[in-house]
């Protein structure tokens, strides 16, 4: 796998994360992991905890962002209200979303997008445990933070595209249209008729390119009169579903399933269940 901190998109935080991983390797007391019990923070924590488990580092999880005085800690912030930063003696790492250059357009202009706390957590986790089984299995979740970030609802997210391309080049994922997803989860999309989707999937292989474009256009026709999803998100939902080896449901569908934990449990329990399931199974 490519080293994420060496990628251009991580240049603003690469030194911080590299130094942090070395400090973690020197710790002789348990590491405290701090976050609020949100979906995004759960994805961040799953990556970091997986690397710590893989590397035998003792840690404790706490759903709070109140900073203790003496214990070494990592704090996850979903938004950009703080900056990714590192202190030592004692060890204190804050990981927070920031806006960076994502891609360079054909005109040479840089396009900015959110480098989410989830993506940074994956970069740190890779440094902590480069060959760890759990963190390698979680690699496709690198882009989960960008999927749930509001940037994709407003405009094109160049960071999502850039990170997804990295996963594609590594052979970690494949991108397919929704009829090729074995068990799609479209429960969040009232504008998709599941019966129609099932009918399309059953005859998908027999359609030519023009036929495939036509049936998918008809499938999402009802979405065009709504303010959401945005055009960019709609394209990802229907045409660019992210699948990894062994997955029956694409990434977006699994994220939809993860959201249900918060409807069925209090936030602390929901977050714990999502983190634990990702560490254990690598899927939701």
Q: What can you see in these coordinates?
A:
This protein has helices at 14-26, 39-55, 117-128, 133-137, 144-148, 151-154, 158-170, 194-203, 209-219, 231-238, 251-264, 267-281; strands spanning 31-35, 59-63, 73-77, 85-87, 92-96, 98-104, 110-115, 174-176, 241-243. The chain starts with 13 loop residues before the first helix and ends with a helix. The model has no long low-confidence stretch (mean pLDDT 90). The protein has twelve helices and nine strands. Helix 2 packs parallel to helix 3.
Mean pLDDT: 90
Number of domains: 1
Identify the quaternary structure here: single chain
Largest sheet: number of strands, sense, barrel closure: 5 strands, mixed
Q: Element order, helices and strands?
A: HEHEEEEEEHHHHHEHHHEHH
> Strands of the biggest beta sheet: in what spatial order?
2-1-3-5-4
Radius of gyration: 19 Å
So how many helices?
Answer: 12
The termini sit apart by 23 Å
Molecular shape: elongated
Unreliable stretches (pLDDT < 50, length at least 5) are: none
Helix-residue proportion: 40-55%
Strand content: 5-15%
Coarse structural class: alpha/beta
β-strand number: 9
């Amino acid at each position: 796998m490519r080293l994420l901190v060496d990628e251009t998109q991580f240049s603003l935080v690469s030194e911080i994360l590299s130094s942090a991983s070395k400090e973690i390797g020197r710790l002789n007391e348990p590491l405290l992991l701090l976050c609020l019990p949100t979906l995004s923070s759960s994805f961040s924590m799953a990556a970091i905890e997986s690397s710590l488990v893989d590397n035998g580092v003792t840690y404790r999880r706490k759903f709070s962002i109140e900073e203790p005085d003496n214990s070494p800690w990592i704090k996850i912030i979903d938004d950009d209200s703080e900056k990714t930063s590192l202190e030592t003696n004692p060890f204190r790492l804050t990981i927070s979303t920031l806006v960076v250059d994502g891609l360079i357009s054909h005109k040479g202009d840089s396009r900015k997008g959110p480098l989410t706390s989830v993506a940074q957590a994956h970069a740190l986790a890779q440094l902590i445990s480069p060959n760890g089984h759990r963190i390698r299995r979680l690699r496709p979740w690198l882009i989960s933070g960008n999927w749930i970030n509001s940037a994709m609802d407003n405009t094109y997210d160049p960071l999502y595209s850039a990170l997804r391309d990295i996963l594609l080049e590594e052979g970690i994922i494949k991108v397919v249209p929704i009829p090729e997803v074995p068990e799609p989860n479209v429960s969040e999309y009232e504008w998709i008729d599941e019966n129609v989707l099932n009918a399309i999937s059953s005859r998908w292989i027999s359609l030519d390119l023009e036929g495939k474009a036509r049936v998918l256009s008809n499938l999402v026709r009802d979405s065009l009169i709504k303010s959401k999803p945005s055009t960019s998100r709609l394209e990802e939902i229907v045409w660019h579903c992210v699948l990894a080896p062994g997955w029956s449901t694409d990434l977006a569908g699994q994220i939809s399933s993860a959201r249900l934990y918060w409807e069925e449990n209090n936030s602390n329990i929901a977050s714990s269940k999502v983190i634990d399931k990702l560490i254990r199974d690598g899927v939701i």
